[in-house]
Q: What sequence folds into this?
């Protein structure tokens, strides 16, 4: 029986916070960037709610609304700064080795991401480990935490739920809906947050993920 690990990408595999923070520092200064990042976190889900906007439009509109709310001026020609920057955001240091080890142990790897196809393709190149599939919001016209990503995953792979684990950093977008679907979950808690809801396992990064997944779904003897 095949074993499947699905992943959120940004914040789990790619340093999403670091990438956005660097753009905010460049546009508005280092001092204000952390507080602006926190507000951006709240704006993005609002823009994703009905699934009508492609992710590049979410990034652009999110930046524009953030600047308007905070009475900041976006430099001319920089309203799409997040879109231009995203393909260059780097994976977390341990990610390529951990994913490579999972492939070595026979796991199938899939990304379920709130992004567009061209953006995820660039990020997968950065990670440097092959994935069996990437499912993106831009093609589903639906953003997590809605269940469409998981529904499409099970439809196209016919994966068995008992041999599947979802791995993600976002409680809101990933862990909560995956739990509601009755899936095993591993929460990558990079920010030292408190888990709500409780995942099956909690890790600070992906270093111990291969052993953790093998514990949750042992390889067939």
A:
């Amino acid at each position: 029986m095949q074993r499947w690990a699905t992943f959120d990408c940004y914040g789990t595999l790619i340093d999403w916070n670091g990438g956005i923070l660097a753009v905010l520092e460049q546009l508005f200064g280092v001092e204000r960037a952390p507080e602006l990042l926190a507000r951006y976190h709240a704006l993005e889900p609002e823009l994703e709610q009905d699934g009508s906007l492609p992710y590049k439009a979410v990034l652009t509109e999110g930046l524009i609304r953030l600047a308007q709310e905070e009475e900041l001026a976006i430099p001319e020609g920089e309203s799409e700064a997040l879109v231009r920057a995203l393909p260059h955001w780097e994976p977390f240091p341990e990610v390529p080795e951990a994913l490579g080890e999972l492939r070595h142990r026979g796991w199938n790897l899939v990304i379920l991401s709130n992004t567009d196809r061209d953006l995820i393709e660039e990020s997968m190149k950065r990670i440097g480990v092959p994935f069996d599939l990437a499912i993106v919001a831009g093609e589903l016209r639906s953003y997590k935490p809605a269940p469409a990503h998981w529904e499409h995953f099970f439809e196209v792979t016919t994966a068995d739920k008992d041999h599947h684990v979802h791995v993600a950093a976002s409680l809101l977008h990933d862990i909560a809906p995956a739990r509601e679907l009755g899936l095993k979950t591993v929460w990558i808690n990079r920010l030292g947050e408190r888990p709500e809801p409780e995942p099956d396992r909690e890790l600070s990064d992906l270093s111990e993920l291969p052993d953790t997944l093998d514990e949750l779904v042992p390889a067939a003897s």
Summary: The radius of gyration is 17 Å. The chain has a mean pLDDT of 96.
